[in-house]
Amino acid sequence: MTTYLTTKHQILSSTLILLLAILINSCSKPQSTEPDAVLPATYQLKNIRYFLYSGDRVDTITVPLKGAILRNPSSTSSTQQVTEDLSELVKTSQFTFDPSSQLPKELDLSKFEVHIPQAPYGHDRNSLVQSSDTYPLSSSQQQKPYTSKTGATSTIIIPPQSKIDIIRQIDAYQLSCTFEGFLENTTTGQRYLLKGKWQGLLQYNNLAVTLKQSAL
C-alpha cells in the first residue's frame, strides 16, 4: 500500500512539472525570424572639379536690360541721378550626369550642394575657379540672383522740353564644361565616380549704356 501511494505522488509531481513547462514556453516571446535592420547608407561628395574638355565652350550672349526714360518738360535744363541696377540678372546651374556612372539607385543627387564655376581659370588653362556660393547638384536648371559689385551712380543732364531714353545691355558668358567628383559611402568607404557636364552662367561683363535724346 505504501509503495502505491509513493508512485501515485511521483506521477502527480511529474504532471505538474510538465504543465508548468508548457505554461512558461507559451508565455515566452517567440524568437524573431526577421533579419537585423540595415542602417541607411550615407554619402559624402568629394573632390568635385570643373574643366574644359573636348566640345566644351563658352558662348557670349548680349542680354538686354531694363531701361529708363528721363523727362524734362521745363524750359531749363535739369539733372537727375541714375544708379545702375543689375538685380534682374540671375546665375544659372544645370548638371547632366554621365549614364555610365554606376551610382546607388536610392541616391538623390539633388540633395547635395556644390560650388559651381565662376570664372576661368584655375591652376592651368583647363581648370575653372569655383564660386563661393553653392547650388543643388540637380539635372533641372537652378537659378539664384547674380551678385555684382556694379552700382555706379551717374549724373545725366536733360535739355529743356526733352526726354532721354536709357538703353542698357550686358554680355552673358554661358559655359558648357565637364565635371568630375567622387561619392563616398561613409560607412563602408566605397567610392563611386561621378561625372558629366555642367551648363550655366559663368559671369556677366561689359555693361553698355546708351543715351538717346528726343523732344517731348
UniProtKB/TrEMBL annotation:
- Biased composition, class Polar residues, residue ranges: 127-152
Stretch list, region Disordered: 120-152
Q: Which domain of life is it from?
A: Bacteria
User: Know the name of this protein?
Assistant: Uncharacterized protein
**Which species?**
Spirosoma terrae
Q: What is the lineage of its organism?
A: Bacteria, Pseudomonadati, Bacteroidota, Cytophagia, Cytophagales
